[in-house]
Design brief:
Radius of gyration: 21 Å
CATH superfamily of the largest domain: Nucleoside Triphosphate Pyrophosphohydrolase
CATH class of the largest domain: Alpha Beta
Largest sheet: 6 strands, mixed
Number of helices: 8
Distance between the termini: 22 Å
Helix content: 40-55%
Shape: globular
Strand order of the largest sheet: 4-1-6-5-8-9
Length: 298
């Protein structure tokens, strides 16, 4: 089964160097669009602002590539070329030349228009053969870090650093460990250090692998997450979130507060990693959706 941390792109003349769109990044864009399009009423303003920013970023990076590839790879009168060019032009106009008016409803309408055209652009990517493999046959690779500090209120207890994405889910209840997807050819321990720094500003060094967690496959493919312990960071740990609106916040979460702050799967994953960290230098925990993998298999 192929590992797909990145997306392979065909040669397309002067447009042969598009921005990378990893499988997990594409899933996040799909999730952002779905969050807005399935909402029956305007989400909170900060959710719409973050979502609109992500959708505009995708459009500005990919609309020129889609238009150029359609022109260079399809005949002038091919309906796929006509549709792709039209969608790319409309997307570019919405992202660069228009914006929300005053009020929550206007912002919601604008955000929905970005989500609709983003879905259309994603469909054109697939029709133009820009995906490198069948997503259902691929494995997304993600690396995250277990970063702990002594609890300020409970003796001999530790709190875990977790971040809250602006989407999907409700910020404040969707916390996860910091980190992100590996890029093509990147070792998972290096991906962990890179993405943790991107999300928190912390320069961390991997100490050892604590857990691997397999996530079930669906229409967008399966995934495996590697959770690492990191070398000691000292007494003062200063977290700095990125300027881009991908994260809504961070928190130091006690072990007994995980169920209130994150999904059951994420809570199980963190507890398993904490258990492996307390166990010293033993073998890493092998998980499936946060539960012991072999018990699930049996």
């Amino acid at each position: 089964m192929p590992v797909w941390p990145g997306t392979a792109m065909p040669h397309a003349g002067p447009h042969a160097a598009p921005p990378a769109l990893r499988a997990e990044a594409e899933a996040e864009i799909e999730s952002t669009a779905g969050l807005i399009l399935t909402a029956s009423m305007p989400p909170p303003a900060e959710i719409m602002e973050a979502s609109a920013a992500e959708l505009r970023r995708f459009i500005n990076e990919w609309a020129p590539w889609i238009k150029g590839t359609a022109r260079e790879s399809l005949p002038v009168e091919d309906p796929r070329r006509v549709a792709a060019e039209r969608a790319a032009d409309e997307a570019t106009y919405r992202a660069r030349c228009t914006g929300p008016g005053d009020g929550l409803e206007s912002a919601f309408s604008y955000c929905r228009s970005l989500a609709l055209i983003t879905r259309e652009l994603l469909a054109h990517r697939r029709r133009l053969g820009l995906t490198g493999a069948d997503p259902a046959a691929c494995v997304r690779v993600t690396a995250r870090a277990l970063i702990c500090r002594p609890s300020p209120t409970r003796d001999e207890e530790q709190d875990v650093l977790m971040v809250s994405p602006a989407h999907p889910g409700v910020p404040g209840t969707n916390f996860r460990l910091p980190g992100g997807p590996a890029v093509a050819g990147e070792p998972t321990w290096e991906a962990m250090a890179r993405t943790v720094r991107e999300e928190t500003g912390l320069a961390v060094r991997p100490a050892r692998l604590l857990a691997t967690d397999w996530v079930r496959g669906d229409g967008s493919g399966a995934g495996i997450t590697f959770v690492y312990a990191v070398a000691a960071l000292g007494d003062e740990i200063s977290v700095r979130l990125p300027e881009r609106p991908g994260l809504a916040g961070y928190a130091w979460v006690p072990a007994d507060g995980l169920d209130e702050r994150c999904s059951p799967h994420q809570a199980r994953r963190v507890r398993a990693a904490l258990g492996a960290a307390r166990g010293g230098g033993g073998a890493p925990a092998e998980l499936r959706l946060g539960s012991p993998a072999y018990a699930v298999a049996a």
